[in-house]
Amino acid sequence: MPKNQIIFHSDALEKKNDKWVQMGFKCDACGKTSYPVVELCPFCSSGKGKKKQLSKTGTVFSYTITRVPVGPYKPPIIAGYIDLPEGTRVFGQIHADIEDLKNGLQVEMKTGVIWTEKDGTEVLGYYYVPCKNGCGGIK
Ligand SMILES: [Zn+2]
């Protein structure tokens, strides 16, 4: 990673096989997966578990559109909750045309520069885009 790049949420992403993947927590006690990575399972409070790579695709549970600037983001800002196949709900930005948005929309996680600081530092993060030709296995 170049010096002038940072990760928005350092526990959220890891590089595997030269690609960024999103990480969650898989509980050994109850078997549930949560996001972000936690020390104690939010479902059963067990501390026994490990980091787990999350699915790259999911469906929009709910979303909202902000039409005024917020921090470094330019409007319209679309953010929402994405349900992943492992039962985890992830919050993130959705990069899509507003007219394409709907609950249940199939989306795919992408990573990239989500904003640039005034000193030129690029902030890397994740966001979701609609699956144009299906998400490969998600119905
Ligand atoms: Zn648990």
From TrEMBL:
Superkingdom of the source species: Bacteria
InterPro entries: ChsH2_C, NA-bd_OB-fold, Thioester_dehydratase-like
Domain ChsH2 C-terminal OB-fold intervals: 53-110
Coiled-coil ranges from the UniProt annotation: none
SUPFAM superfamilies the record matches: Nucleic acid-binding proteins (SSF50249)
One Pfam family here: OB_ChsH2_C
Name of the protein described by the UniProt record: ChsH2 C-terminal OB-fold domain-containing protein
